[in-house]
Design a protein that fits this description.
The protein is α/β, with parallel strands linked by helices. It contains 30 helices and 31 strands. It is flat and about 125 Å long.
Length: 779
């Protein structure tokens, strides 16, 4: 069995029939294939004689019967670990011996009398003496043979050995005379070994560094050549390390930056070469850092200014590139630049003259054409509009005839300045010649932006103009055309705005007119509604209606939603879907929202005092919620009215949760601590994400009316409703179904586990007094 399995450890009984344990042990020890096995004898004999005999036969341990399994296991583990370590040690010794004899360096050991004890130079490649022949030879005899070392090298080596014998580690370079008559550069390391603090011998390591020396010489020559080249070229050159610290600059760079080379080295590149944009106010990242970070060539921005050490500002251009080592790793970067101040100034002047009106300095027809093309391309990509406003000063010819062209030119300049001062930065104000101006408006998303601009321009002309203390009262006619609504090209945009301008003149001058009548009517109606909204905010014309929420399990009215209503001047209701988005756009939603919040709180307090306590939910606009003082406004209102905050519920949309997550969570948590309930309105129709329900403190989910409407006929809507109900129940949130209008919807929702409902099936929205009666009827 031992021959079959080649054991590491054998438990061997002494007394056995036919052949006792000693005989087995003797046979195993004599077998070269088994002699490394560890043998533990096991016997009932507890005397010293048997234990000694077991050890003499080669046993490693002795166990007495009766056996203790734990002791057996512990002994076995110990001897197996010893065998494993012995095996590893043998492997290590073999590996180390193999490594040393195949190293490309000379390794030898000399004892305290400088006799050779070991050498790995089996073939004698270094001193012409093979390792076996070198054993026992004196060091001086070895180094003097074969003229490998000249007298200088021998002297240096002897001096170093004297130091090693004093216990010092020595390292230096020598030249060997190779058999090929070539000089070989060798790195020498001498490492002493000490025994009880006394010199006991030393290790000698010799390494051929000839290729490295040759490379160093080549690099030195290349470096000198590169230095001469960089110092001779007409561009400024600066190099840095990988951290952007300057390590070289040529004379041109020194001249442009105002820094002497010796002062610049070891300083950050941004200190030596501070860059800003053309305004001089906004610092720019030096291309060196981008080249290092992204490992690519980086062109300098077109509008780059270099601030010299003497506070001069130079326009510069060129590029930076990473410096890579032989492994492709970035070691630093180089930037090459030159002064283009004069060249660029001349180019800009020529370009400006070619693209601007000489009188007003406004863009001329050529520049307007270019900007219009770019505006239309951008509008196509972003689904936006482009507007052109053609402005013609009414009866300007009479001004020229009465006061002369010189005064007329001054007047045109004043008109140009007034138009410029009252236009957006993205707009282009252009003079086409004579008394005709054009404003090009890109990035238009709503037509009332164009109308508002036209209205502002008309207002500009209501202020008189003065030339040489003479007053001029001017008016203008404005034609408006919009791409792509009524014009499909630049030429059509120009033509249609021109036609619309003449139409404005026909209608009596001093007015604006859209090319398309239907656009003008729509914008005008929207403009009127915006004005009426502002009037309604000032005069408190809004009303708050309430729609009940009913728990069908006990048919009890458990709360209500506050709904904003607004009547027009003729007493008809304006749809909230029409005026609320407009209120958000024109900045009126915050005062409107605060009005609703105050009115709903006051009515809730009133119902509580009547013994009809119910919670009122208030819709909070995303714009209102985003106000920095929103929580403070709520807190002050609660304090002022002394309202029980359990009567308040805020309904927010999922869009609120998607903005500024950290701030939103903080505000919602603060509102909850105040005692206010938070519900998600129209859940599932916006930026639906289960992550929101996990991150934010939400009390109630409201199932949107759009899902309720088709729930009975559309499997997808029914599945969505099922999911929302299951989700709310799992998260222990309350549920409210909006837009419930039929008994079939009631039955289906209750069967699914949603019991609080809101909709026309129970009641329509009603004003305060009517809701009082409804509450009393349902008390």
């Amino acid at each position: 069995m031992a021959h079959q399995v080649k054991p590491d450890l054998i438990l061997l009984d002494i007394q056995m029939p036919g052949m006792n344990g000693y005989e087995v042990c003797d046979a195993i020890m004599k077998d070269s294939g088994l002699k490394d096995a560890a043998i533990i004898f096991v016997t009932a004999h507890g005397d010293t004689e048997h234990e000694l005999k077991a050890l003499q036969y080669g046993g490693v341990d002795f166990l007495q019967k009766p056996l203790n399994p734990l002791i057996i296991e512990a002994r076995a583990k110990t001897h197996l670990e010893l065998k494993n370590r012995q095996h590893q040690l043998n492997l290590t010794r073999g590996t180390l011996d193999n490594i040393i004899h195949h190293l490309p360096v000379f390794v030898a050991y000399w004892d305290d009398e400088l006799n050779n004890v070991f050498s790995n130079d089996i073939k004698g490649n270094w001193f012409g003496i093979a390792a076996k022949a070198m054993l026992g030879q004196q060091l001086k005899d070895v180094i003097n043979q074969n003229n490998i070392l000249d007298t200088t090298a021998i002297s240096v080596l002897s001096t170093a050995i004297d130091q090693v014998m004093l216990g010092k580690t020595m390292g230096f370079d020598l030249t060997f005379n190779a058999s090929s008559s070539e000089v070989v550069f060798v790195s020498v390391s001498l490492v002493p070994t000490l025994l009880e603090g006394k010199f006991n011998g030393f290790v000698m390591l010799l390494n051929d560094i000839t290729p490295m020396k040759v490379l160093q010489n080549d690099l030195h020559q290349d470096k000198e050549l590169l230095k001469v080249t960089l110092n001779s070229i007409g561009d400024a050159v600066i190099t840095t390390d990988v951290n952007g610290i300057v390590n070289f600059m040529n004379p041109i760079a020194s001249s442009l930056t105002g820094w002497r080379v010796e002062d610049a080295v070891d300083k950050p590149i941004e200190q030596i070469m501070p860059l800003t944009d053309s305004s001089g106010h906004f610092p720019m990242v030096n291309p060196i850092y981008i080249a290092i970070k992204e490992c690519r060539i980086v062109g300098m921005a077109f509008n780059t200014l270099l601030h010299t050490r003497q506070q001069k500002k130079l326009e510069v251009e060129d590029s930076a590139a990473p410096i890579l080592d032989q492994y492709g790793q970035t070691q630093g970067a180089i930037i090459v630049f030159h002064d283009v101040s004069e060249t660029r100034a001349m180019a800009l002047k020529m370009s400006h003259l070619a693209n601007h009106d000489s009188l007003t300095n406004l863009p001329n027809r050529m520049l307007l054409q270019d900007r219009a093309e770019r505006a239309i391309n951008t509008a196509d990509r972003n689904n936006e509009k482009v507007a052109m406003l053609m402005i013609d000063i009414d009866n300007f010819k009479s001004v020229n005839d009465s006061v002369g062209h010189k005064a007329g030119d001054i007047l045109l300049k004043k008109v140009a300045n007034r138009l410029l001062d009252n236009s957006r930065t993205v707009d282009t104000v252009s003079r086409q010649g004579g008394d005709e101006f054009i404003i090009l408006q890109p990035e238009i998303t709503k037509l009332d932006q164009v109308a508002s601009c036209a209205q502002r321009i008309l207002a500009l002309f209501t202020e008189p103009f003065y030339v040489n203390e003479k007053r001029f009262d001017l008016s203008c006619s404005i034609g408006l055309a919009v791409y792509p609504d009524d014009s499909m090209s630049i030429d059509m945009l120009h033509k249609h705005s021109d036609l619309a301008m003449y139409r404005a003149k026909e209608l009596g001058r001093g007015r604006w007119h859209f090319y398309a009548d239907e656009i003008g009517s729509s914008v005008l109606a929207r403009h009127k509604l915006e004005q009426y909204l502002r009037h309604a905010v000032q005069e408190q014309l809004f009303e708050v209606y309430y729609q009940a929420k009913t728990d069908i399990r006990n048919n009890k009215l458990v709360g209500m939603e506050a709904l904003l209503r607004l009547k027009s001047a003729d007493g008809l209701f304006i749809s909230p879907a029409e005026f609320i988005p407009l209120a958000e756009e024109c900045g009126q939603i915050v005062p409107i929202g605060n009005f609703v919040m105050r009115k709903a709180c006051e009515d809730a307090i009133s119902w509580q005092q009547m013994g009809l306590k119910r919670r009122v939910s208030i819709n909070i606009s995303p714009i209102q919620f985003a106000q920095d003082d929103f929580y403070d406004t709520v807190y002050k209102l609660v304090e002022e009215l002394s309202i029980d905050t359990g009567l308040i519920e805020f309904e927010i949309t999922e869009g609120v949760l998607a903005r500024d997550i950290e701030r939103t969570r903080d505000v919602l948590e603060a509102l909850q601590k105040l005692g206010i309930k938070i519900s998600i309105d129209d859940f599932g129709t916006g930026y639906s994400s289960l992550l929101y329900l996990k991150r934010f403190p939400i009390d109630i989910l409201k199932i949107d009316k759009s899902f309720i409407d088709d729930m009975l006929n559309d499997e997808s809507d029914e599945a969505i409703v099922d999911t929302i109900i299951s989700l709310a129940n799992s998260l222990k949130m309350q549920l409210v179904a909006e837009g419930v209008e039929t008994i079939e919807q009631v039955n289906a929702l209750s069967a699914k586990g949603c019991f609080v409902m809101q909709g026309y099936y129970y009641c329509k929205p009603m004003p305060y007094q009517q809701m009082c009666d409804y509450l009393q009827q349902n008390a």
